[in-house]
Write a structure and sequence with these properties.
This protein has 133 residues and is α+β, with helices and mostly antiparallel strands. It is 47% helix and 14% strand. The radius of gyration is 30 Å and the shape is elongated.
Length: 133
C-alpha cells in the first residue's frame, strides 16, 4: 500500500456544517467530505481491493465508493487532516490479515501428570472409607 498514491486518488468536498454554531456555521464551509472510489483505484491491487470491499462492505456505497465526513473542528484544513488520518486507519485495518492460529497438542507429560494426580486423589478418597471386613 502506497500512502501517497492513495491520497492522490482521494477527492474532497467542503460543505457547510450542520447544527449549532451561529454565524460561523452559516457562512463558512468547514465540514469536509472525503470520497474514495475503490473500484477505479490504481493504488491498490485486485487482492487488496477485494479485502477492503469485504471488510468495509457496510461502509461502501453500491458503486464501491467510500464516503467519510468530518466536522469536528472549525477549521476546514484541520478537518481535512482528521478525515485523511481516519481514512488511512480504516484502510490499514481492512488490509490487516491476522495470523492463522496453529492448534497445539497437549504434551504427553502433562497427560501423564493429570492421570497420576487423579489416581492419587482417588487413593486418598479410598483410604477415607470404612474398612471392609
Amino acid at each position: 500500500m502506497e500512502i501517497e498514491k492513495i491520497i492522490s486518488e482521494l477527492s474532497f468536498k467542503a460543505v457547510r456544517s450542520s447544527g449549532a454554531g451561529g454565524q460561523n456555521v452559516n457562512k463558512v464551509s468547514s465540514k469536509v467530505v472525503l470520497t474514495f472510489d475503490l473500484k477505479n483505484s490504481k493504488a491498490l491491487t485486485e487482492d487488496e481491493k477485494f479485502l477492503v470491499k469485504t471488510k468495509l462492505s457496510s461502509r461502501l456505497t453500491t458503486d464501491a465508493v467510500l464516503v467519510l465526513n468530518c466536522d469536528e473542528d472549525r477549521s476546514q484544513f484541520r478537518n481535512k487532516e482528521i478525515v485523511i488520518k481516519r481514512f488511512l486507519e480504516l484502510i490499514k485495518n481492512a488490509l490487516f490479515i491476522p495470523k492463522e492460529r496453529k492448534p497445539t497438542k497437549i504434551p504427553k507429560s502433562v497427560i501423564r501428570k493429570r492421570i497420576k494426580d487423579k489416581k492419587s486423589l482417588s487413593d486418598v478418597k479410598k483410604n477415607r472409607r470404612k474398612p471392609d471386613f
